[in-house]
Write a structure and sequence with these properties.
- Strand 12, helix 10 and strand 13 form a beta-alpha-beta unit.
- The chain has 2 domains: about 200 residues, Glycogen Phosphorylase B (Rossmann fold); about 140 residues, Rossmann fold (3-Layer(aba) Sandwich), CATH 3.40.50.2000.
- It is an alpha/beta fold.
- It contains 12 helices and 13 strands.
């Protein structure tokens, strides 16, 4: 069986959490084609060099340096709708020409087919808007549901109950049909790297930078300026293949790392400083790490996750504008980290098995939309 796995190109998070999905499909002997564009596709190709590739049109979302991110995103919707229609046409044609039997899409809303079962992976069944834009909540919820309804199934990378990481972001919509299911947390990491005791750690802090420009570079400048005045032993993963300038002397780091290298590095330090993107949160939960989160300014999802995890006493967080490394390091010691999170990664395998059994036993008619 041939399967397409498509990843959104907003940062690397959607690509990294496709890793366990691709591994699970490969372990079942399925032939996987990876689809996407830009850095996220390049990263997946480096992780899985033997797999086939479908290059899709870029979403090319622009982020503001200042001002309201949500409003800027809303202004880009007409252009994004054209991109989604284009990628849908490209994917449907590829499915027909190459005998694809299943499509799994991580947040690419055009990656569904009328010809074969299609699954969307998303932790945002609820889109959060700023308080002053709540009058748009119903419209945004309706449109999001409409886009999800193109797919045969919707998989939410979270667990229900007290150990939910996504909170209200990933709840089933009211009156949701059976197509919605939880698949547990997704992480590219195996959890096999042995964490070192703090007394034996080479570093105090690993800084993992990610996300779109210009905010990635703004945060890097803030962190580097404060590290240069700190006694903390830190290592920086910059998250870019071609950084605009070298790191200052005395601050070690690298541009990008593959999965195995990064997991090994994270075991070297008791704490990680990163954006509060959901894929990063799931990765750190898998490793049971302590964390300091700085949400991308104006990105309501990251701001919500940072607040939620702080209230749960799992991880300290602070805004980018007010971030103080010395204060954050001191405060982080009173948070538990993710060391008690249950490992629910078997839920993905269970959902894949149910889907493949359903495909095997279903009638040959096209899925109902």
């Amino acid at each position: 069986m041939k399967v397409i796995v498509a990843a959104l190109d907003w940062g690397l998070g959607h690509a990294t959490r496709c890793v366990p999905v691709i591994r699970a499909l490969h372990d079942r002997g399925l032939e996987v084609v990876i689809a996407g564009n830009g850095d996220s596709l390049s990263w997946l190709r480096a992780e899985f060099p033997a797999l086939g590739v479908l290059e899709l049109p870029p979403y090319a979302v622009s982020y503001s340096r200042h001002g309201n991110l949500t409003l800027k995103m809303l202004r880009q919707i007409p252009r994004l709708r054209k991109v989604i229609r284009h990628e849908h046409a490209m994917l449907d044609q590829f499915v027909s020409q190459h005998g694809i039997e299943l499509v799994i899409s991580d947040n690419r809303y055009g990656c569904w087919s009328t010809r074969v079962p299609s699954v969307i992976i998303t932790h945002q069944t609820t889109i959060l808007l700023p308080p002053y834009m709540k009058w748009l909540n119903r419209t945004v919820a309706w449109y999001n549901q409409k886009m999800i309804n193109h797919f045969t199934q919707c998989w939410i990378p979270d667990t229900p109950g007290a150990h939910s990481l996504a909170g209200k972001l990933g709840r089933f919509p009211a009156g949701a049909p059976a197509k919605f299911s939880y698949i547990g947390n997704l992480s590219r990491f195996t959890g096999h790297a042995t964490a070192k005791p703090s007394s034996q750690s080479k570093y105090d802090l690993i800084v993992v930078l990610s996300g779109p420009e210009p905010q990635r570079s703004i945060l890097e400048d803030i962190i580097l300026a404060q590290l240069s005045k700190s006694s903390l032993r830190a290592y920086i993963v910059r998250g870019v293949r071609q950084p605009p300038k070298p790191l200052p002397p005395g601050i070690p780091g690298t541009d990008v790392m593959n999965t195995e290298e990064l997991e090994s590095l994270l075991s070297e330090a008791p704490c990680v400083l990163a954006r509060s993107g959901y894929s990063t949160v799931m990765d750190l939960a898998k490793l049971g790490k302590k964390a300091i989160f700085i949400p991308t300014p104006g990105q309501t999802e990251q701001e919500y996750l940072a607040r939620r995890l702080k209230l749960m006493k799992l991880a300290y967080s602070a805004s980018q504008r007010q971030f103080n490394l010395k204060r954050a390091w001191r405060a982080s010691k009173s948070y538990t980290g993710f060391n008690f999170m249950p490992d629910r990664f078997q839920m993905l395998d269970e959902n894949i098995s149910r889907l493949l059994d359903w495909m095997k036993n279903r009638s040959p008619k096209k899925p109902t939309r």
